[in-house]
Amino acid sequence: MKIVSAHVGTIPIRSSMRNAYIDFSKMDSSILALVSDVIVDGKPLVGYGFNSNGRYNASHIIEDRLLPRLFAAAPAELHNDSGEFSPSLAWDVMMRNEKPGGHGERSVAVGVVDMALHDLVTKAAGVPLYRWISDHYGDGHPDDSVFVYAAGGYYAPGKTLTDLQDEMRRFLDSGYNVVKMKIGGTDLTEDLKRIDAVIEVLDGDGSRLAVDVNGKFDLSTALEYAQAIEPYHLFWYEEVGDPLDYSLNATLAEHYPHPIATGENLFSVQDARNLLRYGGMRPDRDYIQVDPALSYGLVEYLRVQEALKQHGWSSKRCIPHGGHQFSLHIAAALHLGGNESYPGEFQPTGGFTDDAVIRDSHVSPGELPGIGLEGKAEFYRHLHALHE
Ligand SMILES: O=C([O-])CC(=O)C(=O)O
Ligand SMILES: [Mg+2]
């Protein structure tokens, strides 16, 4: 298989909401179409990729560094011994002449291309991505469906406690059992009122509510909130301090007995391994949220899984950030603990196929070949326009 052309674009995924750290008024995403020389039903197979929310587009790195390396590579450098196009070998080619460390936006750019390459090879194989991953890297027995929780509960101008409760009710009505809300964007007194309001909607069951600080707290605020929320037995307390402050996380874990989740802003196996080594994370209860679409793609995510295994962690402790269709396949194939979902947010890239049904907080990736972005009509319109 040969890639005959590559088409990079940038689309807005903006929204008026805000977490404790940023608003999303200028949020955007790279989108990519890789057109191949494989013809099916008279049309070339095309692989699509995009980046997850929270980081901005990385289109220039894709165009200036990654794609030129792929196009300059000899066919033998991109195909394995069985003659198959290999996203893993392509990954090595893309990372030529890149120093280690300082992963930043480069991991986003590689993630976009890695996703498009996996979409392409799995379409060429005629199978949904999760089956291909399970056959190549898993146990050949993927999960039928994946646990998903509904993330929302953002701060927004004029949003009242009643609005917050209504939002959470809509999540429950659409099939989710567990929900997530933002905290840390106001003071503790206000946040406790917001938490109480949401727990009321959850019939008083705090173990169905996760809270997300988006890295805002210093150690003393982290511990102050920890003490205040401990009695609620929350589903998890997320990204409490700066994502690279492993010492803060380790101290928090000594004081807070319930689950902690973090990792959405760790973009490499090296950073994830440091979290396991120095972050005090507890393999019996905590969650790792590394998002494959932001962190060098599936090829690197497999390395993260290997590092977890070496440290005695189960793949079930991973629930990736991002709420997108790519991680949903990965979760089903590698028996992850679940995947995030943002009903209605971060469109058009976010979310699952249009026909996906959430039942008992579970959803299936679907049976379309590849990632299945053709099953997301609005997003597919943008992707298709890249190369038509
Ligand atoms: O608000 C955000 O940046 C998204 C986020 O943290 C999450 O999905 O966990
Ligand atoms: Mg988060």
TrEMBL record:
Q: Record's SMART domains? A: MR_MLE
Tell me yes or no: is Metal-binding among this UniProt entry's keywords.
yes
Q: Where is the active site?
A: 182, 321
Asked if Magnesium is a keyword of the record, the answer is yes
Note the site residues: Increases basicity of active site His.
291
- What keyword terms does UniProt attach to this protein? Magnesium, Metal-binding
| Positions that bind substrate | 19, 53, 99, 154, 180, 238, 264, 321
> Per the entry, which co-factors are needed?
Mg(2+)
Pfam families, from UniProt? MR_MLE_C
The GO terms this record gives for MF are:
D(-)-tartrate dehydratase activity; metal ion binding
- Site feature: Transition state stabilizer: 53, 180, 340
State the name under which the record lists this protein.
Mandelate racemase
